[in-house]
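User:
Hi there, any thoughts?
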Amino acid sequence: MNVVKEGWPDAPSHVCRGGPPEALAFCCPPVKPCPIFHALDEAGLDPEEYVRRKKEFAEKTPLGSGKNTCFGSLVWCCKITKPCPLRDSTLQRIGMSPEEYMWWKKKLAEYLLGKKDLDEILRETSESEPEEETVEVVAEAAGVSEEEARRALEEANGDPVRAVKLLKSRGKGD
């Protein structure tokens, strides 16, 4: 994805380490007493709205991948600097770089805090071309040409997992 330059080089510390509300992008669901509740108050979000927004973001972006992660999608995962084999294996499987992952987390923070709406974020991604490596991975996974993979990636807003599913649902690919 060409829109990803540096990821999120000035990403904040996790909320559990005293980070600001932007760090809610790295939090899991609010299921136990922890600093997330203070950050949610600061952001003007109640726990239900926070969960709803994260789930909506997961449905429409590549952060929805990761059924084998702790909470079932990358949308709930930590910052890339915190070691996590479950997150990292998902990133490798879908062909997402650490920079792209952090770029999506930054967009998630912007969405959670109301700085951008989801449609605006999706337009940003659809205006860019997918990285060649991602096109190759989708083509190989679905057993289609790179041109078909590129079209499916555009239709799936850059989400390689969704692109492969689209191709397979159409009977293209194995």
In short: The chain has a mean pLDDT of 87. The helical segments are 36-43, 47-60, 85-94, 98-112, 118-126, 132-142, 146-155, 160-169. The chain has eight helices and no strands.
